[in-house]
Amino acid sequence: MAEARMRERTTGATATIGRTGFPAIRSRTGGTLDIVTGANQAGFNPLDLLYASLSACLAMSARYVANRIGVLDRLTTIEVTVTGEKAEAGLARVQTFDIAFVIGGSIDAETRRAIVRAAEDEICTVSNTIRGNPQFRTTISD
Q1: What is the DSSP pairing of strand 32-34 with strand 24-27?
Q2: Domain containing 33: what range?
Q3: Is the pLDDT of residue 105 over 70?
Q4: Which of 29, 46, 59, 94 could disulfide-link to 80, CB 3.0 to 4.6 Å?
C-alpha cells in the first residue's frame, strides 16, 4: 500500500554538549529539550527519546488510520506505551521493543487490530525506519 504523505515539515536535531554537563537538543524548527542521564532525574535520556519518537509516531499514525477507515468519530483516545529490552551481548542496542496500544472508544477488536497493523507496518516512519536498515552519512568538521 502507498505510504501516506503529510505536509512536509523541516526535520532534524542538533545536540550540543560541553566538557561537562548534559546535551541540549535543538530542533530545526526551534524546539529545545535538555537531556538527563541520572537514574532518578526527571526528563528524557537518549533512549527515552527513541521510545518517545516511536510511541508518538504510532499514536499519530493510528489516528490517521482511524480517520482513513472511517471510525475516527468513534475514537476517544489512543495511548501507545513503548519500552524495550537492551541486548545483553554484542553492540549496545535495543533488542526488543515492547509496544502497548490502548484504543479507547466504541471500536471492535478486529478494527483495533487493523488500525495497529496499518499504523505499524504502513504509516509510521519511525517504526518503518527501525525495522529497516537505514544508511548513515556522516561528516566530520572542526
Answers
A1: antiparallel
A2: 12-40
A3: yes
A4: 59
106 phi, psi to nearest 5 deg: -90, 70
pLDDT of residue 7 exceeding 80, the answer is no
The confidence band for 5, taking pLDDT boundaries of 50, 70 and 90, is low
| Distance (Å, whole) CA 105 – CA 82 | 21
CA distance 116 to 29: 29
The label of the residue with cell 477488536 reads 109
Q: Are residues 104 and 86 in the same domain?
A: yes
Q: Read off the pLDDT of residues 46-77 as tens digits, 9 standing for 90 and up.
A: 999 999 999 999 999 999 999 999 999 999 99
The SS3 of residue 40 is coil
What's the mean pLDDT in 16-35? 93
* The amino acid at 48: D
In a domain, 141, yes or no: no
**Among 120, 73, 128, 127, residue whose Cα is nearest residue 101:** 120
